[in-house]
Amino acid sequence: MVRTSQLRFVAVRAIGLALVVSGTACSKASGPSSSAPNGQPPAFVATEFGGPDSATAAAAAIPPQRTPARPAFDLCRMLPSDTVARILHETIGKSVSTSTTRPGGMCTYRDVAHGTPGVRVLIDIGRDRSAASAGVTLLGQRGQLGAHGIATADIAGIGDAAFGSSDSAGRYTVMMQDGAITGQISVNVRGADAQSLRPAAAELAKRTLAVLH
Question: Which residue in 92, 95, 93, 91 sits closest to 75, CA to CA?
């Protein structure tokens, strides 16, 4: 009787060992389990549906943002505030140089002595690839103004080509092209009619081209 029980125990133990060995072999053959600690999905699922690997690839695919270029022309230095003030016969208390995303430079001038600026001047200069492309740029700018119902008039004696326009805010603007250079000079003086600012804006345009050459 004892021997029969011992034989049954040995048989059961052998079957158990066989099941353990079989389970281990299956586990190795089938690879990682479909579950992970803390209920997290396996690594390949995270990668396929936006895990670390795919996030890195997506970030690499985003093109870098263009950073503002350093001014090629330091207009605030080339055209000091006192020079602009003499041309306008107005007080200029502050000038600020601004970087742009294209080759060129920009400077703004303001009278800040009385709180809200009574004088605002913008000189914005760019350099195109060639004189031909600069001419196309100027023509396109004129077309855009016309499309918005803003009248323009030719101005002689400024670079290769130039025209002026005024708006309801009392601002007079000269757009010009000289070789590969294109430029915009805008003048606004509180209480002044925009057309009365045309001579000063034209003189600023001429002076700007003179210091650039």
Answer: 95
Q: Which residues of 120-142 are buried (b: 16+ CB within 10 A; e: fewer)?
A: bbbbbbbbbeeeeebbebbeebb
Helix segments in 68-108, DSSP class H: 75-78, 81-88
Compute the half-sphere exposure of residue 94: CA atoms within 13 Å on the CB side of its CA: 12
Q: What is this structure's pTM?
A: 0.64
- Whether residue 125 is found in the same domain as residue 29: no
CATH number of the domain to which 110 belongs: 3.40.1000
Taken as a whole, the chain contains a residue count of 213
The tens digit of pLDDT for each residue in 157-197 reads 999 999 999 988 899 999 999 999 999 999 999 888 999 99
Place of tokens 């323009």: 152
On whether both 31 and 121 belong to a single domain, the answer is: no
Per the structure, the complete domain to which residue 24 belongs is given by 2-61
* Residues 92 and 190 occupy one common structural domain: yes
Within a domain: residue 70? no
For residue 78, CA distances in Å to 34, 48, 183 come to: 70, 57, 15
Note whether 33 and 109 are same-domain residues. Answer: no
Contacts of 44 (CB under 8 A, 6+ apart): none
